[in-house]
């Protein structure tokens, strides 16, 4: 049944891609793409906690080897939750002008991601990885929503190709050691091998998958690429594609290299994850564009999941498989909550674009002008990403902190100290993320407009409401959903950490004596607590409310000029962390007749990237220099072309002789 549904989903995506190439029936193609996502979600629901039955793919023979296909429980979990926002994004479509190109890119991304999750052969995996990456670029380029979209997509592809080359090298190293490109032989090839071999393969896997996850320094392509696309594209990239990249990294480190990566690699992974999370959430807080802010937030959440994976490696190296399974399960919970919440806010951004014509975070009166369903959905999603109870993001981050607090079980001082510092870094990340989504919701949605407010399309309101309610349902039903994660730990099939994470309707980090929470009970208690201020208001009804203007520096009136902007909200943190941001501000004045008659006043501000000038800038200058020197090849001189052909013939003759 599962494979039938997966095959049906693949067929729908292929037909949708063909429709996009034909250029007709794009609405039908979007409907089919969404139905394919729905079929994939149903397959995940019906199959978990098991895996899909393995099948052979004899048609796709690469490197003289056939490939199999199966979706593990972890793959079904991540793919299923990523498909939920992708389904709604497909049905809503992109607000950009190139609808058919976007649909084609969407189909490529979904088919490629399915291959990343399911194929069992190295060469087929690399092909699927490239298809998924090119699909994301096609979506961005097809929308034409921003100037310079081509250069942004090219920068994204350039960094992703660095990762692709690293993955190619890793697969070659693993394939050479095992004598086959099949994943089944990768693990056994390293038993008894020297440590440097698995360490090299692990480092290559980290670079390859980290380029897609946004680990430092690769996160710098996120705001440009996401900012050139729509919210629908962002929902797919931050849900399906991001989850696929994490699954690939986890499978590589836990299945392909079992025991090959030691505690030193786990320490490095925790350090990279925490530093990436801190930097990306700091940059997210400074953004004034919905897509750029949510893009940095996606990199931050991916980094938190990678940190949990690093903790899992530390516990595994310390011979604590139950704690290792706990850390890995927490990473899956975190990415599931992230996919739903981030999809809701990305689709809310598209609604804002449809209503206002832009993606700027400003006070447009969005919340008051739209339905309560939209307001609840956006609020639940923002609360989850800000780790506020009782939402799913709060549950996953609470589990994350409880996991690193278990570091005292580790045998080595370095490992214990690593998890202590990891907890401190995650606390800073959570605090800044909280402020980030207070800013997004408070300024971008709750802010009051001078007119009646921006009215979003009804379909976007419904989609945001549905995904927001799904975030709450994931949190409230967590004691039930954890049953679907009984067999997700890939290193030891017999380890069922999820069974030790519940005590009735209470969630516990393996033991109720250590800590516990209950989101299921919080949703009952919190509305009851709300009765206290309601009762106070009712008791004070005899005293009329006194309404006076808010004090604002002595200003006699409040208008749009006094409204809090996204820049004002985040300026204090920009000043405090100026050593990280290195803020830049430029002011230009255009006058008429004399300096006293100002026609235009221009103000631009930005924060300086950390890695771009040092790492990417020299490469760009090198390419430009080579291009300038290579222009002579396009001079049109026939003598030059004949001379080059002659040199090539001489070179061929020399090679043939020797």
What this model shows, in words?
The chain is mostly helical and 658 residues long. Among the domains are: 148-523, no CATH class; 575-607, no CATH class; 610-657. It has helices at 2-22, 26-47, 73-92, 99-118, 122-143, 149-178, 183-186, 196-213, 222-228, 231-256, 263-285, 290-317, 321-356, 372-385, 392-405, 413-444, 458-476, 478-481, 519-529, 531-539, 566-576, 578-581, 612-629, 638-657; strands at residues 55-62, 65-69, 502-503, 506-507, 583-592, 594-607. The strands form three sheets. The chain has a two-stranded antiparallel sheet. Strand 3 and strand 4 form a beta hairpin. Helix 3 (73-92) runs parallel beside helix 13 (321-356) and helix 4 packs parallel to helix 10. The N and C termini lie far apart (60 Å). The mean pLDDT is 87.
Mean pLDDT: 87
* Largest β-sheet summary: 2 strands, antiparallel
Overall radius of gyration: 26 Å
Structural class computed from helices and strand pairing: mainly alpha
pLDDT under 50 segments (min length 5)? none
- The oligomeric state of the chains shown is single chain
- SSE order, as H and E? HHEEHHHHHHHHHHHHHHHHEEHHHHEEHH
Q: In angstroms, what separates the terminal alpha carbons?
A: 60 Å
| Order of strands in the sheet with most strands | 1-2
Helix content: 55-70%
Give the number of helices: 24
How would you describe the shape? globular
Strand fraction equals 5-15%
Q: How many beta-strand elements?
A: 6
